[in-house]
Amino acid sequence: MQPFGNAEQSHRSALISDREVLLAAKTGDVEVICRYLQSAQNINRQILWNGQTISPLHLASMVGNISIVEIFIRLQVDVDIQSGSGISPLHFASEAGHQKIVELLVKAQADVNIKDEIYCSAPLWVAAQNGHLSVVKELIKSFANVDSQEQKTGCSPLYSSSQNGHLHVVNALIKAKADVNLERCSGASPLYIACENGYYQIVKSLINARANTNLQESVNGSTPLYIAAQNGHHQIVDLLINSKVEVNLQTKRGFSPLCIAAQKGHPQVASSLIKAEADVNQQEIRGVSPLLIASQNGHHKVVALLIKANADVNLQQVTGESPLFLAAQNGHLQVTLELIKAQSDVNLQSVDGCTPIFIASRQGHLRIVDSLIDAQADVNLQEVRGFSSLYVSAENGHLEVVNSLIKAQADVNLQENDGYTPLYVASQNGHDQVVKSLIRANANVNLLEKANGSSPLHIATQGGHLRIVNELIRAGAEINIQEKVEGSTPLYIASQNGYHQIVDSLLKARADIEIQTYNGYSPLHVASKNNHQRVVDLLLKAQSEVNKEMVPDEQGQRCEAHELSFSAASSDQTLSQKLHSALTESGFVESRAKLQMAAADVLQDILRKRLNNDEIFVVGSFSEGWGNNLQCLDGRTDIQSDIDVMTLLSGRLHHQLGFCQCDDATIVKQAYENGHINAPGFASNPALPSYGTALRPALDQVDAARLCCYPTIAPLQQQRISKSHIPKIELCSLQDDVSSNSFSPCHVVNAASPGQGGYELRVSTSFLEKRMLRSLTTLQGQLFVTLKYLVKKVICHADGFKLQGVKPYHVKTITFRMVEETPPEQWKPENLVILVRRALQMLHDSAESNCKPDNAHGRIMEHFFLSDTALYLKGLNRNESEQILSRIVSTLKAVIEKLPQLLVQFIGSLTPINESGRFYFHPFQILPNLTARLTVKSDPLKYEEIYDVVRECLQRLTKDDCSLQSQENLALLISRLPDCAFTTREALKALACIKFGYQKTAERIVSHCRGHSVNRGIVWSAEKPSAAANFDVVWQYLRSHDSTWKFCFQFDERPVFKFLPVTLAALFPLQLMNKPGCFFINSEALMLALNLELRTIGDFQSKIAEVTQREDADDLELLTAAMFASDIHESKLIFNRLVRQSSQIPATIQAVLKRRWNELTELSNNQN
């Protein structure tokens, strides 16, 4: 049988077509079947049907045509003939429940224990699974193996029938002595699965057949009783208890049946287990008891049962939480009342010192707080950090809870370990009503925190909370108090941040405008510097006595203010708007950055699924969203950029001295200093780079090892948080990342500080950096992109200042500092140039301060995240440090001076995105790991499996085998490709037809695809909101459009399609010049080439012109057009495009193009 051809094969000369034969077998047309079987070669012949090869006997057995089956048996057909997927006629008949046909086949000596090739299942298994009792009995009577297991899952006939509730089949198999304890691969027995699904009568039959009621499955260690309890099957639970089951057997995690019943809230099950003397205080490995888990989940009926059974109401889990604590935490009032009534200790503290009233206060559960107060809970107990119930309720703005606690005599001035009071934290977070309540309760408005000596008024001013500032002033807050570290007053802070209303309130309260910070800055100075003109005007108006030497009159003072001002001149403002507009038009906006991040997450997902490894992470600029391409943000990676992939090595876990809190006494803790841990023996080479091309970006692969925890993270320290302008939600996210160490694992890479190569491993904060960059607003992202351009393309580039040492990581650090230090109101389009200048000045000042003779290693700035950690210049020789730093300082000064001209150049280099805002994402073109995987048989094909199916098809096309079996196998493989790879699938079909000699079929396939267009990218207009750009949107695009048509593959040698003309065979696949063994396939270009070669396009020249004019045409599309162009001018356009795209063309193709160029030139000359 040939899957691609039709009447072209000699052996298909019979008058009856395959379709007629199959239809006859299906409908019982004896005459047609008899005519068909007149040819002896047709007796066991198989035909392609619904994607698999079967014989007419298979189909007749499937649909139940006894007369047709009898004819085949009479002609001594092979009754064990197997279809393309290994299924016998007996399988089909058993699955469909055709007992008479099963009987006929068995009498004809069909093998009753034959197994198919997919699942290795026997006919009895299939019949039992589908509940066909008569067939089961017939097969048992014919000595079928009643314990034959399906290979993939290990399920026996008894297991499958128990799973599907086929009681009579179960009884028949038990009667036939089936092994009632035979487990599947996961260790689950027939009794287990019947209990799980709630089949009472089947459970009863299996118990009567002496099934082991205590048999534990191997994955979790669950017993039949456990799974029945979990699913609430109380009658089955009673049945098992009556059979003397062990009621306290625990899973691998230590969960008992009673514990899981309590967790799921099944009171009838819990009652039965308690009556059966289940241990009501049995704990799992984390110390969770039945009462604790029921209290946590709010199952008050189960809680009442357990309390009545004398469960220990104060039994704590490993981390110290009691049942009452968890009920209070989750807001379960009825459970809380039950536990209080049962004499639960209302002041029992967890390991970190938290009490039930503390956690209820933090969560804002007012009625629970009131209940605990009524039960005499201590309202002033503090947890290990010194936080009280009043502190956390004030922090979170739970006003009614605050009022209840105050009424219960909570200490309003109780300070936590760092000196923060409830009033301070409420002022910090802007909870003005809470502040009022605390002040009414006589809270001390002038209590200072310890580290910086700041007051509630300081922190309220810092946050811009006007109403709170006014409340504190009315309550007698000290107006002119200075912080300990910088000497800032509330007025200075308000002036610095441009809070003119707060400045006005402070001035009316007689704030002293002459008080300077310890470095000599006054409120007027800082307001002028930061261009807060309204604040400057207020300060000038309020100034009662002027320093005569500095400013003789008000007009002079205003001039001084303008000299200090960072206010942009009108030219700066104009340039800022132009730069902002150009960047916006080129796609550098938050919503497109989010789409880039989502695409990176999908690429990571595909990579993980292909390699079956969740410890692989796509990191770096491709994942961070902003700096992947400095010309436009459209998904395409700049040829000078790369995709970074980090793999966490299994089995390696480091522990740093001074931070590790792991309990294991056997671990070795390594010294930590300057952002590195002491770990001799590792080479200092964090990344294994590859090189990029126009068709495939560069790749940096980094192996890393886990570090048990993060060291101190500087921006999360209180002294930084109090002054930070990083949004609170992002600080919380960073804190979550640091605390969880799972989604953003701390790790070390093979890199060392200067001079320590081979002795240190560097602590990486790449996930925290990713978090920060992903949180940038449009303006912040545009600042980052502009700075990165200035460093890469101006300072370091051969066409710029040619200065090495400064690297993009320094740009990240400066950007983070700008986000932390710049108030929100300054992030405006008209300030963009000012912000760029300020960032460059920050980099300049940092380099200048480190330009010292003793700085041999080229330290340039402090690490943003790691405390007491330096960043260094890249690739610096020890004896060049001071000289290079001096050059960097002078270069940065020159860049700042020439900034307007350089920004105009940058604007000119930007590429506006097209009207549709198309965003390009071809995951199999940029797939970081090209390792071939075995093609799988999942149905339908998973997206990540498309890559390996296409690769396998290409390999098979290069082989010389043209046998019928080879054709069938390739046809089946190609047909598995889904519609999201439509063009790829049809192109492969056409190639297969050409290879096997079916030219007309190939032409028909190609012609049918002529009106079809691939999806070239995600359409993403400028109006799309950031929230719309997410992981699911990218996946939906990939799966619901013809999006999968670009691939890069790794082959040991170039695949050669010998059946194609020389020009096409040279083009497809295209070898990437600086990536040995890497080849590129563009299915759209291939389909175009086949259309042009097979002459299925009438006006092919217009099609070539369309490709030439397409802005996003890649090298292979342009080369295809060049091969077929018949116009000299069109060819020139194509060659110019290839030059502009820095295309690297293999020598063989260059030779073909040269010949084609000479032919066109000669033709043009002759025409002239």
From TrEMBL:
<feature type="repeat" description="ANK">
    <location>
        <begin position="186"/>
        <end position="218"/>
    </location>
</feature>
<keyword id="KW-0677">Repeat</keyword>
<feature type="repeat" description="ANK">
    <location>
        <begin position="286"/>
        <end position="318"/>
    </location>
</feature>
<dbReference type="InterPro" id="IPR036770">
    <property type="entry name" value="Ankyrin_rpt-contain_sf"/>
</dbReference>
<feature type="repeat" description="ANK">
    <location>
        <begin position="220"/>
        <end position="252"/>
    </location>
</feature>
<feature type="repeat" description="ANK">
    <location>
        <begin position="452"/>
        <end position="484"/>
    </location>
</feature>
<protein>
    <submittedName>
        <fullName>Uncharacterized protein</fullName>
    </submittedName>
</protein>
<dbReference type="Pfam" id="PF00023">
    <property type="entry name" value="Ank"/>
</dbReference>
<feature type="repeat" description="ANK">
    <location>
        <begin position="352"/>
        <end position="384"/>
    </location>
</feature>
<feature type="repeat" description="ANK">
    <location>
        <begin position="85"/>
        <end position="117"/>
    </location>
</feature>
<feature type="repeat" description="ANK">
    <location>
        <begin position="319"/>
        <end position="351"/>
    </location>
</feature>
<feature type="repeat" description="ANK">
    <location>
        <begin position="519"/>
        <end position="547"/>
    </location>
</feature>
<feature type="repeat" description="ANK">
    <location>
        <begin position="385"/>
        <end position="417"/>
    </location>
</feature>
<dbReference type="Pfam" id="PF12796">
    <property type="entry name" value="Ank_2"/>
</dbReference>
<feature type="repeat" description="ANK">
    <location>
        <begin position="253"/>
        <end position="285"/>
    </location>
</feature>
<feature type="repeat" description="ANK">
    <location>
        <begin position="52"/>
        <end position="84"/>
    </location>
</feature>
<feature type="repeat" description="ANK">
    <location>
        <begin position="486"/>
        <end position="518"/>
    </location>
</feature>
<feature type="repeat" description="ANK">
    <location>
        <begin position="119"/>
        <end position="151"/>
    </location>
</feature>
<feature type="repeat" description="ANK">
    <location>
        <begin position="418"/>
        <end position="450"/>
    </location>
</feature>
<dbReference type="InterPro" id="IPR002110">
    <property type="entry name" value="Ankyrin_rpt"/>
</dbReference>
<feature type="repeat" description="ANK">
    <location>
        <begin position="153"/>
        <end position="185"/>
    </location>
</feature>
<keyword id="KW-0040">ANK repeat</keyword>
